[in-house]
Design a protein that fits this description.
317 residues, D-Maltodextrin-Binding Protein, domain 2, binds trimethylamine oxide
Length: 317
């Protein structure tokens, strides 16, 4: 009897040891949101590869940046690895304050997203990058169908640019391109003809290594610019300012992710890329023409030590 009891205890004891991590962590795949620009997609793959090394399965959930918030708040997605301040801070901050999602920390990289032009445009619109210079020569940025107004090419992410144009009384109209990559088609076309163009761009990105260019300097960003109409040049309207110049780049997680995958959550908090690393991820695909997965694999293989340093003790498979 005693013998059987000891055996039984040993058995349960070892069973407990073996199964403890398994019962405390979900076995369901981790759901990673993929958005629609290159570095985000590659970094999502890299994050997935890290979690796979830790023994998790991964589902990728394609989503627009506007739809991702509901998915994170409801736990139908677990995380988004590149939340950019210039275009996403309003929703992000609101949901974090409400306790609906988790701020899983910042990358080392600082970011900027704003109106941008290739270098040759400066000679055609003297005074750039100052926004008042841009306002004065709006008409040179006209396109067919714009009634002589300047055209600003936007991707599917930005802040209310119409509101900024109105607040700063600029003679521009916004042309929203369906796909982010359409921006580069417009840039290439204008560049070949050395024609004036103003478009949305961001850094870190591959574009800076291919095209010399500059961001427009709007009135300096302030949170009050987006919350208090009386702030700034226009006393009646919000958005009379640019986006942050040294913006943050954060990771967002669902509340259930922290609870169900403690090891993966701690790892997510540690994941941090700097500017050259983010720029490189986009260049591998958009310049070197690698697939997202191949770019991620190459990066993972050449940064093994760094990746392993992000995984807490006891969390490796
Ligand atoms: C969110 N983005 C990097 C496209 O500006």
């Amino acid at each position: 009897m005693a013998h059987r009891f000891i055996l039984f205890s040993l058995y349960t004891f070892s069973l407990t040891l073996i199964t403890l991590p398994a019962v405390s962590q979900s076995q369901e795949p981790i759901k990673i949101i993929t958005n629609n620009w290159t570095s985000q997609i590659v970094l999502s793959q890299i994050t997935g590869d890290i979690f796979k090394r830790m023994g998790f399965e991964i589902d990728y959930i394609p989503s627009s940046t506007s739809n991702q918030w509901g998915a994170l708040a409801h736990g139908t997605a677990d995380l988004q690895i590149e939340v950019w301040e210039g275009t996403m801070s309003e929703q992000f901050n609101r949901l974090v304050s409400a306790g609906s999602i988790i701020d899983a920390g910042s990358h080392q990289a600082t970011t900027r997203e704003d109106w941008w032009y290739p270098e040759y445009v400066e000679a055609l619109c003297p005074g750039l990058p100052n926004w008042q210079a841009l306002k004065a020569c709006a008409s040179i940025f006209n396109r067919p169908g714009s009634d002589g107004k300047g055209v600003y090419f936007a991707g599917p992410w930005e802040k209310p640019d119409e509101a900024r144009i109105r607040a700063l009384e600029m003679d521009f109209q916004v042309r929203i391109l369906e796909k982010g990559d359409d921006l580069w088609i417009e840039l290439k076309k204008a560049y070949a003809a050395q024609k004036p163009i103003i478009l949305f761009n961001w850094t870190p990105n591959w574009v800076e290594s291919r095209y010399a260019g500059t961001f427009v300097e709007f009135p300096k960003y302030s949170l009050a610019c987006e919350t208090d109409p009386s702030w700034g040049i226009n006393k009646n309207f919000l958005y009379d300012c640019g986006n942050p110049k040294e913006g943050w780049l954060k990771k967002a997680a669902a509340i259930s992710f922290k609870k169900n995958y403690p090891c993966a959550y701690e790892t997510l908090k540690n994941i941090s890329l700097d500017k050259p690393q983010i720029a490189l991820l986009s260049a591998l695909v958009d310049i070197d023409q690698m697939s997202y997965q191949a770019a991620a694999e190459q990066w993972v293989n050449s940064n093994s030590l760094l990746l392993e340093s992000w995984i807490p003790q006891g969390c490796m498979k």
